[in-house]
Write a structure and sequence with these properties.
The chain is of the alpha+beta class. 35% of the residues lie in helices and 16% in strands. Among the domains are: 181 residues, Penicillin-binding protein 2a (Domain 2) (Alpha-Beta Complex); 300 residues, DD-peptidase/beta-lactamase superfamily (Beta-lactamase, 3-Layer(aba) Sandwich).
Length: 729
């Protein structure tokens, strides 16, 4: 049978095609609808979000670090400045393999081990998107080398910044302090706003006034291309620079104080007793704060740490010594104000003092004693026996009450961080620290500034200033004024009202007269200090012993190792009739106060009151000779210094003293000569001393130990422990 082929059904095929076409059209329509919806979502619903992201890819915010406020001395000399520099910053997320980057970059720019270690430490502790400083202070050659090869190092940027510089180096290290790199602890304090900063104040004024000096961070909006290169600035939030500070410190007097020490170690603080302004603050030895600004090397840091003299230790603020005989003026005032003593009351000094029923004695400053002694003589001749008996009569509770009023045992309040409170011995302190009761012998010990005493030079100069300023106990301060813009006027910082240490001017006068006799009296322990001085001074020497006497023989401090030698002390003010400066000097291993510390104080007085600097110290502000000094005749008429070796003569250096009164700012009216003219009774006596070259000679640097009465170390011996010893100077 023949096969039949199936016939086609065109209607069925057409229907099938229509169904397939409709299905395809539906799928295409759905796809187009979904695409349209997706585009609608991107272009309309999420427009703001993606526009912001796009703008962020084009616009990169860059923080603007404010210029740190500058620091000046009282005469406008720049003590801390900002200098331009460039650094290398690395953003780890953009840099890729950081170890490979360090290796390649190290072939182009020298990187020391300290810098690499610091980067690795910050990389582990920080976030990948946050730039990390790899190298500070690029040289010109290093900047040029990196600029040519920048394309090889993605994520590495060369950023401009201002770095701190201290023109006077170690002269103000313990006053101004220094800034250093910010660490994680600093970031916790600063918060997110501090991530743009690289440095922060670490010590001194830089730390105490960090909030004022730092300013406020600003931002710039930088347009970049696809390679991330900056094209232009499209927006800016300006940074607010830090405030400038003007200190009460005088750089000239600071240099004079350092030079006065020579090779000795110790500390000196000079203060205007009328205002509490610190005029000089010296702690020796010192160090160069510039070493710390951009990271100190291990070698330099180890050299500082291994130095047994501890250059970084601020002896004026953090240290402390037993006050020795410098305590006597204050204990004498306490005895007078408490009514236990009258100025004319006398105590017999025979050379040794014994407690009733006790065979162990305390020696006086002379083996044979000083005879009958009143309040003035007890200060001038440093008579121990007077104070042994006075302390027992007053009792430890009353002593503590009055000495606390004078500022001992508490911070002075100076505007530096970490000031020591010192130690004011008392029964409660001894019981708390040593679990021992208080004995009468302890009272005898502390009466002459020995035993468990610890006072800072700041406490000493503050209390001395109160004696000089009619009993006004002022808070010492370093910062005098601030300004928020370069062209803005200086505004003085507010200071609290002073306290009052005594309500009896007659008692203060007795103590001041005793201190004046210390220098100008026939038996004063610092009488050699007055040689050639055209003004009168008031002061008190002291010696804090480190080792005890043996038997009845005195210990010669020059025979001891340096760390066991007596600490020489001096407090005082000048001029005695119109005090303008108060000082406290402490010399480590200096021997006796009258022969070591007093001459240093004399040089500080001369520098401030006379404008006379120690030998070898040239004036900071020496100006070229004016035309009127061109000839010998003109030089004689103008008072110029005669020329030598064909050089032009120079005018005499002006006085450095700045008056206490805000409206009294004419230097010509505030030098020593002006002060002298205000003292008619002294004009005739002082004029020859001012004019005579011999009278203007500086005091001797050292005085024979046996020369001053009561300052020769020849006190009678005692069998008390070292805390009970005092040589009375």
């Amino acid at each position: 049978m023949a096969s039949r082929r199936a016939s086609k059904n065109p209607h069925a095929e057409a229907e099938q095609f229509r169904r397939r076409a409709a299905l395809g059209f539906l799928v295409a329509a759905l796809a187009l609808g979904g695409l349209a919806a997706w585009y609608f979502r991107l272009q309309v619903l999420q427009h703001d979000d993606f526009a912001t992201r796009s703008e962020a890819n084009r616009i990169r915010p860059r923080p603007v670090v404010p210029a740190r406020g500058m620091i000046y001395d009282r005469q406008g000399r720049l003590l801390a400045e900002n200098v331009p520099a460039f650094r290398l910053d690395v953003t780890p997320d953009k840099a890729g393999d950081t170890e490979k980057l360090l290796a390649e970059l190290g072939q182009l720019i020298p990187l020391d081990e300290d810098e690499i270690e610091h980067f690795r430490r910050e990389r582990k502790a920080g976030r990948g998107f946050r730039p990390i400083t790899l190298k500070l202070r690029l040289s010109d050659e290093e900047m040029a080398a990196f600029a040519v090869n920048r394309w090889r190092f993605p994520g590495v940027e060369m950023e401009p910044y201002l770095t701190r510089h201290y023109p006077y180096g170690d002269l103000f290290a313990h006053v101004i302090g220094y800034v250093g790199r910010i660490d994680e602890k600093d970031l916790e304090t600063l918060g997110e706003g501090g991530t743009a900063l690289t440095h922060i104040g670490k010590t001194g004024i830089e730390r105490s006034y960090e909030d004022l000096l730092r300013g406020k961070v600003g931002y710039e909006q930088i347009e970049t291309n696809v390679q991330g290169r900056a094209l232009r600035t499209v927006g800016r939030v300006p940074a607010r620079p830090g405030s400038d500070l003007r200190l009460s410190i005088d750089a000239e007097l600071q240099r004079a104080a350092v030079a006065a020490f020579g090779e000795l170690e110790g500390t000196a603080v000079a203060m205007d007793p009328r205002t509490g302004e610190i005029l000089a603050l010296v702690s020796l030895p010192s160090y160069d704060p510039n070493l710390f600004v951009n990271g100190i090397s291990h070698a330099d840091y180890r050299a500082l740490m291994d130095n047994p003299s501890r250059p970084q230790f601020n002896r004026a603020v953090l240290g402390g010594v037993a006050p020795g005989s410098t305590l006597k003026p204050f204990l004498a005032l306490a005895g007078l104000d408490s009514g236990v003593r009258r100025p004319e009351d006398r105590t017999l000094s025979t050379g040794m003092f014994y407690l009733p029923g006790n065979s162990r004695g305390w020696g006086d400053s002379h083996r044979g004693g000083h005879g009958w002694t009143d309040a003035r003589k007890s200060i001038a001749d440093s008579v121990n026996t007077y104070y042994y008996q006075l302390a027992l009569d007053m009792g430890i509770e009353r002593i503590q009450q009055y000495l606390t009023r004078y500022g001992f045992g508490e911070p002075s309040g100076i505007d530096l961080v970490g000031e020591s409170t010192g130690i004011l011995p008392s029964p409660a302190w001894k019981l708390r620290q040593r679990k021992e009761r208080w004995y009468p012998g302890d009272t005898v010990n502390i009466s002459i500034g020995q035993g468990d005493w610890k006072v800072t030079p700041l406490q000493m100069v503050r209390a001395t200033g109160a004696l000089a300023d009619d009993g006004h106990l002022r808070r010492p301060h370093l910062v005098e004024a601030r300004r928020d813009r370069f062209d803005a006027p200086w505004s003085a910082l507010e200071r609290g009202e002073p306290g009052q240490i005594s309500e009896r001017p007659d008692n203060l006068r007795v103590v001041r007269e005793g201190m004046e006799m210390t220098i100008h009296g026939p038996g004063g322990t610092a009488r050699m200090m007055s040689v050639g001085a055209p003004y009168r001074m008031a002061g008190k020497t002291g010696t804090a012993q480190v080792v005890s006497r043996r038997g009845t023989g005195a210990v010669d401090p020059r025979s001891l190792p340096m760390h066991l030698r007596h600490r020489a002390l001096f407090i005082g003010f000048a001029p005695a009739e119109d005090p303008q400066i108060a000082v406290a000097v402490a010399v480590e291993g200096g021997g006796y106060g009258g022969s070591t510390a007093a001459p240093i104080a004399r040089k500080i007085f001369d520098a401030w009151l006379l404008g006379k600097l120690p030998d070898g110290v040239e004036p900071l502000d020496a100006a070229p000779a004016p035309a009127s000094c061109a000839g010998a005749g003109a030089a004689a008429e103008a008072g110029c210094t005669p020329a030598t070796d064909g050089e032009l003569p120079l005018p005499p250096p002006p006085s450095r003293r700045t008056p206490a009164q805000a409206g009294d700012r004419n230097p010509a009216d505030n030098n020593f000569g002006s002060w002298l003219r205000r003292q008619p009774q002294l004009q005739r006596a002082a004029a020859p001393a001012v004019d005579a070259p011999a009278a203007r000679a500086p005091a001797p640097a050292t005085v024979p130990a046996a020369a001053p009465a009561g300052d020769d170390g020849s006190a009678a011996g005692t069998t008390e422990p070292p805390a009970a010893q005092e040589n009375g100077r």
